[in-house]
Design brief:
Elements: E1 12-17, E2 23-28, E3 34-39, E4 45-49, E5 59-65, E6 71-76, E7 84-88, E8 94-98, E9 106-111, E10 116-122, E11 131-137
Antiparallel strand pairs: 1-2, 2-3, 3-4, 5-6, 6-7, 7-8, 9-10, 10-11
Length: 140
């Protein structure tokens, strides 16, 4: 199946698919910036948005989704800014999962069917960044 791209976009990429056939990934909105995207089993496209919609060039990317449709990834104000681990729930609400203390950035990489999320978080400001595993429990 060829998936539709975002209006005015040039490219889209799928990162994960769940058993229901829902796919998540990234679509380049009007060529740039990348936005988190979801496609249903029929290939219908939804721009999932970003944590920072008022920013001049906000970015978001998905990494994974679980059986119930919880989506995780990251979002940033613009290219080059630290991203924050992000969760999109089934209703389309966006949640900033934050960072570990002292860290400017984080990324959610996977979510299981129990809602456990794993990823990484900085624990110091740049340029000396230390990454630590991040586990968050999301009730649903």
């Amino acid at each position: 199946m060829e998936l539709p791209i975002s209006p005015g976009g040039l490219e889209s990429q799928v990162a994960a698919i769940n058993p229901a056939g829902t796919m998540v990934g990234v679509a380049y909105v009007n060529g740039w910036p990348p936005h988190a995207a979801r496609w249903d089993r029929a290939g219908r496209f939804v721009d999932l948005g970003t944590l920072y919609p008022a920013s001049s060039a906000p970015e978001s990317r998905t990494a994974d989704l679980n059986r119930s449709g919880i989506i995780v990834g990251n979002s940033s104000m613009s290219s080059g800014n630290p991203s924050h681990a992000t969760l999109w729930d089934r209703a389309g609400r966006i949640t900033d999962l934050g960072t570990l203390p002292g860290g400017p950035g984080s990324q959610a990489r996977a979510v299981n069917d129990a809602g456990l999320i794993v990823g990484s978080s900085d624990t110091r400001a740049y340029p000396t960044t230390v990454h630590a595993d991040l586990t968050v429990v999301i009730g649903h």
